[in-house]
Amino acid sequence: MIFLIANQLLQIVFRLILFVWTSWNDFWTWMSSTNRCDVDEEWWKRKTRGFPGLPTHLALNISGREARDMEAIAEVIAAVCVLRIPLFTLYDRRGYLKDEAIALEEMIKKKRVHISDGMPNRTWRCHIHIMNRGDCDIPHTTGTLIMIASQDDGKQDIVRAAQILCSEGGTITAERLESTLCTRGIRDVELMIVTGTRKTVRSFFPWQIRLTEIEFVTSLEDLMPDGLIRAFDNYSKKEQAFSWRQTSKRDRNE
Amino acid sequence: MRGPNALLGTQGSQQIPRAYPDPRARILNMILALRLGQKRGRTEQSLYNRTMFSWLESFSINVLKAGRIPHHIAFIMDGNRRFAKLQKMPPIGGHVQGFGALKETLRICLELGVKIVTVYAFSLENFKRPSDEVDPLLSLCKDKLFELESSGFLFENLISVRILGETSLLPKDLQDTIREVTSYSSSFQGAILNVHLAYTSREEIVHALQNLSSSVSEGKISPHSGIRGEDIERRLYSSNEPDILVRTSGETRLSDYLLWQSSESQLAFLRVLWPDFSFWHISWLILMYQYQNRGGHRIKSGTA
């Protein structure tokens, strides 16, 4: 009984410490945060100029609650397009973003990001592709490819590939499996940013996060814009990321 | 075979200096580790024979046990070589210290009531390292596995050891020791220690698919309608999903470890080097787990 009471007290103290710590962090972030009105294309380029390299495949893994905040998501996409990151995977476990892709596209257009309409001679644009278990035809694009995914595209894709490989017969190798997945030809995720209080990958593509750097942020609100810069800064410091990028040769969006 | 004495350059109960890249951990350990009758730090004696917790640790264990305890914790034991570098000792010395940390972690987890502990001991990628680094490491693996059995540690705590991975790639003497230790402990039901040797998660998934393909060839499963996620999970080296996956040394990636099984696990990336991993780090992890799983917000726990 005594230990149970002590445990409850410890939990209260722990929550108090967490509350004070997060409040302090939030206050400090607010004090040092960039005025969002100042954030434009030049601002992003100036902030990232000192980084040796940005990830070529960035993933944003958001909670179900935050998947409804289209404006915040569109802001992240606009930044990714400005920074000319070739691949961006937008993931929410339940697939809410897949259902609301049209609304998301409208919100992105409001951010003055050009959505690819197949017209030639356009400068950097972004192209939205909704991942679907039945459709593995990922388009080529000269801009940023935004892949919207859910948990059906992770383990289920491996199951689908297993069905194909088992019916074909022959020895199953890593290369055969990889060439059967819907993400064939797409480089693995280099940096994944996970939002929310729970530090879990939420069934994100298990095959593609072998060497992925994982950053946790409390919320989508905290991510823009300083949180994203911090994530890129941490990523650029990881020496392993550079040696891996130099040896990786798979990228359909070169 | 030289024992750890020669490797560490110490004898008897002479203290082994600890690396404290994190001064906060050092101060906390010094203030709180009031071990009655024991010297501070991991002495050679305490590495292998420590059986008592301090009064504060015992009290803390009982307090933590009053809340929810994770069923399965997985560890990526990173930082041994960095620890050795900081201590100006050969790399193998860092691994010896790392084994001490593993043994202590295991004892603490058992005391807390954690039923499954999984550790990443040796990756398939590690074979690419120079042989003068790999051979002593595998030899140390063999010695420590044998020591776990011969010291009575497994018997006293009823720990069943499972070695998971492409063990056919390991040296023959290590394979023999693995067979001996796993058969010796196979009937123990106190807790399970999964040790991943010669392992990567991708290889594990491919291995599971190869098994699945054999079942399909034998007509046991229909390739299109019969294959589900559970069929792949059953054929993995271990289908236990960790409640918490811990990586030490400050790295924030999974490094091809338990990619399938950790899809819903609570991840913890700690800056402490593995040889410095201590009781208080585990306590912090358990507290975080209890906080995340308070009330009705329960993260899916591992299944036996």
TrEMBL record, chain A:
Its cofactor is Mg(2+). SUPFAM superfamilies: Undecaprenyl diphosphate synthase. The keyword Transferase applies. Pathway: Protein modification; protein glycosylation. It catalyses: n isopentenyl diphosphate + (2E,6E)-farnesyl diphosphate = a di-trans,poly-cis-polyprenyl diphosphate + n diphosphate. Gene3D superfamilies: Decaprenyl diphosphate synthase-like. It is found in: Endoplasmic reticulum membrane. It is an enzyme of class 2 (transferase). Keywords: Endoplasmic reticulum, Magnesium, Membrane, Transferase, Transmembrane, Transmembrane helix. GO terms for cellular component: dehydrodolichyl diphosphate synthase complex; endoplasmic reticulum membrane. The keyword Membrane applies. One of its GO terms (molecular function) is ditrans,polycis-polyprenyl diphosphate synthase [(2E,6E)-farnesyl diphosphate specific] activity. Its EC number is 2.5.1.87. Belongs to the UPP synthase family. This is ditrans,polycis-polyprenyl diphosphate synthase [(2E,6E)-farnesyldiphosphate specific]. It comes from Planoprotostelium fungivorum.
Automatic annotation (TrEMBL), chain B:
InterPro entries: UPP_synth-like, UPP_synth-like_CS, UPP_synth-like_sf. One of its GO terms (biological process) is polyprenol biosynthetic process. One of its GO terms (cellular component) is endoplasmic reticulum. Its EC number is 2.5.1.-. Keywords: Magnesium, Transferase. It holds the Pfam family Prenyltransf. Belongs to the UPP synthase family. CDD domains: Cis_IPPS. GO terms for molecular function: ditrans,polycis-polyprenyl diphosphate synthase [(2E,6E)-farnesyl diphosphate specific] activity. The keyword Magnesium applies. This is Alkyl transferase. It comes from Planoprotostelium fungivorum. Gene3D superfamilies: Decaprenyl diphosphate synthase-like (3.40.1180.10).
